[in-house]
Amino acid sequence: MNVENTQVQMRKGIIEFCILHIISRGEVYASDMLLELTTAKIMVVEGTLYPLLTRLRKAGLVDYKWVESKSGPPRKYYTMTENGSAFLAKLSATWNDLVTSTGNIVSNKKAQPKAKRK
Q1: Which of 37, 49, 69, 104 is the most buried (most CB within 10 A)?
Q2: Residue 85: what pLDDT?
Q3: How far is 105 from 37, CA to CA, in rounded Å?
């Protein structure tokens, strides 16, 4: 088994959650999302981000608006919809449960007793 593949899968599982959190803070440009994710060591490329943003928009979780730029073409800024906020709240509750559960498991130093068979 390849540890790098498992690490990639673990990161992929939280990208959508992280993107929704970033957008929930206010209007954000895609390249700023990429920068924040990369800085946090969640490696994402444009080829992953843009299809995900399109899927989130089609699901009604995020929206965008075009803003004219003084130094180039217009920019697309993403915002959270009401449905997106509700969706993120549910994901956040699940995340908190998972963090607690996995924390309990990985911090347990002793072997658990075997279940008795009937």
Answers
A1: 37
A2: 98
A3: 27
Q: How many domains does the chain divide into? A: 1
User: Does residue 109 form part of some domain?
Assistant: no
Tell me whether residue 111 is in a domain.
Answer: no
d(CA 28, CA 26): 6
In a domain, 57, yes or no: yes
Strands 28-29 and 72-80: antiparallel
> Residue 1: pLDDT above 90?
no
Q: What is the CATH number of the domain that holds 73?
A: 1.10.10.10
Per the model's pLDDT, the better-predicted residue between 88 and 68 turns out to be 88
The per-residue pLDDT for 41 is: 86
- Contact criterion met (CB below 8 Å) for 22 and 28: yes
